[in-house]
Design goal:
The complex is a heterodimer of chains A (190) and B (201). Chain A is mostly helical. Chain A has helices at 2-8, 12-34, 37-53, 65-84, 91-99, 109-128, 131-142, 147-154, 158-178, 182-189. The longest helix of chain A is centred in the first third of the chain and has 23 residues, at 12-34. Chain B contains five helices and seven strands. Chain B has helices spanning 3-12, 17-29, 31-53, 66-75, 89-102; strands at 111-112, 118-119, 128-137, 140-149, 154-161, 166-171, 189-190. The N and C termini of chain B lie far apart (81 Å). The chains are: A mainly alpha (190), B alpha+beta (201). At the A-B interface, helix 2, helix 3, helix 5, helix 6 and helix 7 of A face helix 1, helix 3 and helix 4 of B.
């Protein structure tokens, strides 16, 4: 919160520091929800322009700065979705944007191939989720929020946040089961 | 809650102590539940791992957006609204209140010269109501002046500051309502025709 205070006191460097500290998480959240690089960048831009203009409106008594930031991010993601409807994402683009982390150098080609297949499958499974469920999964597992924090961000009761994660979990599990991915995952996670 | 829901809630840590104990008891006796728990745990681990990697920005990707963000944010900073940004709320509220108070009267707009001198352009026989109020705001004296005339029906309101400027807040068009009752003198107002030019200091 020191960064917020410094920014409010007119420290220009603090704005940059604030951006560097939070922009990667905002981008990851936006990308996880929108599954589109350019749209996620646009959201980052909109979020931080809004935040810098309205920093004085942030009330620490109402929640953590990160929660406020994510609330704005989710709102902007929904706007972006409304603007253009979620486009179908080329799997190659998804993989190029972080779905496929580089395999350890020591990993053998067979395991590397299985890892890649598992990532692809998860990507496909994520695409099959509704936007609301993808938001829930992105906040819970992508950002590590607890259900109470998720409820604040999504403006729903904690039980609703929990049930969205559960539904998303079930949907993802179903896709993975259908693809018989369990052995693959066991091997990769091993 | 079915078995899968209970097990996921168990993994997510959202069960009550009693529910948790029930699940643990069931797990000890049911290989089916144990298999299901392991499967759910696998998906959960996969999600935790992959979702944290999903959408990692490339090097320099977000930094490139920053200059534009800072420019846009600076352009839209509050406090730059064009005309009334410097006016204290008191002045604006007073102006609106006076306009409302005088609205039932029959009104007339008078001319104001460039330095804020009050020069009612009113025939001598026309009844006029004038009002003058002042206040000190941030060390600056601000006066609110209003003149209402019956014939023609106009209201003129202006703000004058002791730094020589004036801001006309005019109700230029005639107001249709006519004043029938006798005027009740308001503080600082006179019901007599005001032919004397109220000057700012």
């Amino acid at each position: 919160m020191a960064l917020v205070k410094r920014s409010l006191n007119g420290d220009q460097i603090a704005y940059t520091d604030l951006y560097e500290a939070f922009a990667p998480d905002v981008y990851r959240l936006a990308y996880s929800v929108l599954l589109h690089k350019q749209d996620a960048e646009d959201v980052v831009q909109e979020v931080f322009v809004y935040v810098f203009r309205n920093l004085a409106r942030y009330d620490p008594n109402r929640g953590a700065f990160r929660t406020w930031l994510y609330t704005i991010t989710i709102s902007r993601c929904r706007n972006a979705r409304r603007r253009k409807r979620l486009p179908m994402v080329a799997l190659s683009e998804m993989l190029a944007n972080g779905m496929d982390p580089p395999a350890p150098e020591s990993e053998n080609p067979e395991l590397s191939s299985m890892r890649s297949a598992a990532h692809q499958l998860l990507g496909e499974a994520l695409k099959s989720l509704s936007p609301r469920l993808r938001e829930a999964i992105a906040l819970r597992y992508g950002q590590g929020l607890i259900y109470r924090e998720m409820a604040d961000v999504l403006n729903v009761p904690p039980k609703t946040a929990e049930s969205r994660v559960r539904l998303a979990h079930q949907a993802l599990r179903k896709v993975m089961d259908e693809a018989n991915v369990a052995p693959l995952l066991e091997e990769v996670l091993g | 809650m079915d078995a899968r829901e209970q097990l996921l809630a168990y993994l997510e840590g959202t069960l009550s102590r009693k529910e948790r104990q029930q699940v643990l008891t069931r797990l000890q006796s049911s290989p089916e539940w144990q298999r299901e728990l392991e499967a759910l745990r696998g998906v959960q681990m996969q999600l935790r791992t992959e979702m944290r990697l999903l959408g990692r920005p490339e090097r320099g990707q977000l930094e490139a957006l920053l200059p534009d963000i800072l420019n846009q944010a600076a352009r839209g900073k509050p406090g730059c609204s064009p005309r009334w940004s410097g006016l204290p709320t008191f002045v604006l509220v007073s102006g609106v209140l006076i306009m409302i108070l005088l609205a039932p009267l029959v009104l007339h707009t008078s001319a104001v010269d460039a330095v804020g001198n009050w020069q009612p352009n009113v025939p001598e026989s026309t009844p006029t109501l004038s009002l003058h109020d002042e206040n000190t705001i941030e060390g600056q004296l601000v006066a609110l002046e209003a003149v209402a005339t019956e014939e023609p029906s106009r209201l003129h309101v202006q703000l004058v500051t002791d730094r020589g400027g004036s801001i006309p807040l005019r109700q230029a068009s005639p107001i249709s309502a006519r004043w029938e009752a006798s005027p009740v003198p308001m503080p600082g107002a006179t019901a007599e025709p005001s032919r004397e030019v109220p000057r700012w200091r």
